[in-house]
């Protein structure tokens, strides 16, 4: 018995992901080829699966067909004839006009020598006249699946058919989902160091999928200006240099903030000097941002060996130095004096104790939040008696 449900949408979903990733790949390839990216747009599921236009004038339409299993694209393949119907109807409706337009069918299936797909391919076998003869004969056959495609093609005049086929290109054995990502890597290496390639692509795909969803949510469907892609690439590119790191959590917020109910050690440390609620809220946010950003860098393989430990050590040295200065100046033989001492030490570390992890990284939340990570582990503390929290536990605390 098959384990696949009749309602399983995984194949369709893979097809959509393939389409979106392929659009990103084509867009990145096109950037260095065009004089002004702001004149060009790419759209998904608008004029076609993927469409490029120059200042509103359609220039290239692509149909993408993803197949999980290996196979050949035949002369009567529904991929070909459904695509023919879509394109012919767009011509007849005036959405596109023949001439300089390029109409591409990109499929993961193989093209066999001498087949219709081969005759409409990009190689030496390309032959419009032979393709026209084959298609004209096929259109006289009975085929319920392809009937609309046959009807659409037959509705063109002989001159229109030749002009139409002159614009059509079938590209077979196109890279599958994973290999397209591999093809993104040489492009990414033009922008960032080798060790940052995967993280850079992940970030590009993240914003790209967001833009696609936003475009598809518009009515009618919108387009993505290639100038936006160019600007985004140029904006984040410096973050992946050897002197910098990507700043991805500067505006991130935790799902919830519960000052009264939060029993984490770094919060208890702040309660020792009666920190106001607002200050604790800021601490929770900075802790969250630093924690998430550090883990993201580590997961993306962007950190040098021992880099986080070295960064933490510099923070501890800052804390230790300021604590020593304060001990020369302050008396803390009463409970109130100890609270004031703790407040001053905390204020110094949060305001003047910011240490960049790399020279060009500007996100001060990293230092501020990392101080809290260290205080949570009781490696540093604000109140002279912070060591008494040694029995405190972070168990069951999100």
UniProtKB/TrEMBL annotation:
Residues 266-388 form the ABC-three component systems C-terminal domain. InterPro entries: ABC-3C_CTD7. Pfam families: CTD7 (PF20283). This is ABC-three component systems C-terminal domain-containing protein.
């Amino acid at each position: 018995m098959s384990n696949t449900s009749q309602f399983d949408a995984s194949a369709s979903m893979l097809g959509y992901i393939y389409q979106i990733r392929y659009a990103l790949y084509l867009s990145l390839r096109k950037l260095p080829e065009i004089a002004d990216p702001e004149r060009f747009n790419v759209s998904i599921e608008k004029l076609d699966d993927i469409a490029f236009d120059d200042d509103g004038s359609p220039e290239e339409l692509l149909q993408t067909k993803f197949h999980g299993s290996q196979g050949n694209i035949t002369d009567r393949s529904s991929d070909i004839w459904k695509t023919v119907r879509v394109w012919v109807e767009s011509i007849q409706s005036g959405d596109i006009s023949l001439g300089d337009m390029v109409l591409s069918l990109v499929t993961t299936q193989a093209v066999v020598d001498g087949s219709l797909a081969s005759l409409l391919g990009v190689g030496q076998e390309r032959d419009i006249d032979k393709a026209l003869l084959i298609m004209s004969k096929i259109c006289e056959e009975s085929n319920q699946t392809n009937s609309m495609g046959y009807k659409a093609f037959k509705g063109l005049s002989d001159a229109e058919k030749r002009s139409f086929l002159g614009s059509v290109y079938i590209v077979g054995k196109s890279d599958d989902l994973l290999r397209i990502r591999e093809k993104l890597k040489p492009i990414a290496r033009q922008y960032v160091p080798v060790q940052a390639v995967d993280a850079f692509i992940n970030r590009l795909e993240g914003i790209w999928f967001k833009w696609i969803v936003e475009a598809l949510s518009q009515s009618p469907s919108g387009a993505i200006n290639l100038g936006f892609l160019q600007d985004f690439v140029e904006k984040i590119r410096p973050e992946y240099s050897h002197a910098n790191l990507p700043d991805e959590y500067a505006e991130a917020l935790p799902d919830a903030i519960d000052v009264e109910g939060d029993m984490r050690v770094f919060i208890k440390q702040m309660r020792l000097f009666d920190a106001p609620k607002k200050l604790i809220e800021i601490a929770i946010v900075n802790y969250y941002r630093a924690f998430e950003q550090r883990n993201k860098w580590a997961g993306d393989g962007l950190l040098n060996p021992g880099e986080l430990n070295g960064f933490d050590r510099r923070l501890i040295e800052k804390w230790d130095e300021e604590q020593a200065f304060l001990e020369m100046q302050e008396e803390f033989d009463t409970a109130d004096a100890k609270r004031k001492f703790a407040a001053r030490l905390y204020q110094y570390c949060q305001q003047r104790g910011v240490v960049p992890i790399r020279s060009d990284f500007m996100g001060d939340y990293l230092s501020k939040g990392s101080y809290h990570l260290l205080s949570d582990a009781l490696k540093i503390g604000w109140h002279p008696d912070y060591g008494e929290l040694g029995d405190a536990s972070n168990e069951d605390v999100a």
